[in-house]
Amino acid sequence: MKTTLIPAIAGFALMAGIGIAAADEVIVTPEQQTVVKEYVHKHKLASVNVLGLELGVGSTVPDTVELQQVPDVKYRYAVVNDHTVLIDPGTRKVIQVIE
């Protein structure tokens, strides 16, 4: 009995971890992407250089970077190291690099 119980518990723990990781994924709808891209192109910002920051999805932007609001979108944006990025203001994590 113990032999079959341990793999079952391990499998459950693994699946629960996958569920938690999937819940952390941020989804930006196509409509939001369009609004953000149009707004960012109309409201250009100077780039803020942050030494040592490897910029990408999941990177945390320091408090020294001022986040700009986009109307009707809960996320903010900034231009960091010459890249426009969409940022979750609660965690300050980059959720999308805008091309």
E-strand count? 4
Tell me the strand order in the biggest sheet: 1-2-3-4
The global form is: globular
| SSE pattern | HHEEEE
What is the strand content? 15-25%
Mean pLDDT: 79
Largest sheet: 4 strands, antiparallel
Backbone CA Rg: 19 Å
Indicate the structural class: alpha+beta
Cα-to-Cα separation, first versus last residue: 56 Å
Task: Describe the fold and architecture.
- The protein is of the alpha+beta class and 99 residues long.
- The chain is 35% helix and 19% strand.
- It is built from two helices and four strands.
- It has helices at 2-23, 30-42, and strands spanning 68-69, 76-80, 83-88, 93-98.
- The model is unreliable at 8-23 (pLDDT under 50).
Give descriptors for this structure.
99 residues; alpha+beta; 4-stranded antiparallel beta sheet; 19% strand; globular
Provide the fold topology.
Elements: H1 2-23, H2 30-42, E1 68-69, E2 76-80, E3 83-88, E4 93-98
Antiparallel strand pairs: 1-2, 2-3, 3-4
How would you summarize this macromolecular structure in one to three sentences?
This protein has 99 residues and is an alpha+beta fold.
